[in-house]
Specification:
By secondary structure, this protein is of the alpha/beta class. It has a domain at 48-131: 2-Layer Sandwich (Nucleotidyltransferase, domain 5). The protein has 3 helices and 7 strands, in the order αββββαβαββ. Strands 4-3-2-5-6 form a 5-stranded mixed sheet. The longest helix is centred in the first third of the chain and has 22 residues, at 15-36.
């Protein structure tokens, strides 16, 4: 009769630590992927302001180019198309948007865009500017 000092146990896989590791990996990859998504837009020379501060994330960013054309999320719009886009957003009174105009854009073009936004019912409008250094 042979004596065994150590019993031979069958190995088993613990599933709960493996689930924890998988969740950590999932969260890690989601966070990295979100940072890799580029914000599409134009390279504008924004005016500088000594009172510029960070605004809450807008629903839309309206970009006004030097030639007066208006872009939202990479697509060009005329003023009536812009008004239709803002009205179709659901509740325009709760829509937040930021207007980013180039430094050389005529002020009248900026006013046209502001009027169009107000006609659509949007009241939470921010103006993009770079902080003065």
């Amino acid at each position: 009769m042979t004596r065994r000092y150590f019993e031979a146990r069958k190995g088993r896989i613990e599933i709960i630590p493996m689930i924890d590791v998988m969740f950590f990996l999932l969260v890690f990859f989601i966070m990295i992927t979100l940072q890799m998504i580029p914000d599409q837009g134009l390279a504008l020379q924004l005016p500088r302001s000594s009172r510029a501060r960070r605004l809450p994330h807008p629903h839309f960013t309206i970009e006004i180019e030097n030639n007066g054309s208006v872009r939202v999320q990479g697509r060009a719009y005329d003023l009536t198309g812009l008004e239709y886009l803002l009205r179709s957003d659901g509740n325009p009174a709760k829509t937040r948007l930021t207007i980013a105009a180039d430094r050389n854009v005529p002020f009248q073009e900026f006013i046209h865009v502001m009027d169009t936004c107000q006609k659509a019912g949007v009241s939470d409008i921010g103006i993009a500017a770079k902080p003065a250094r």
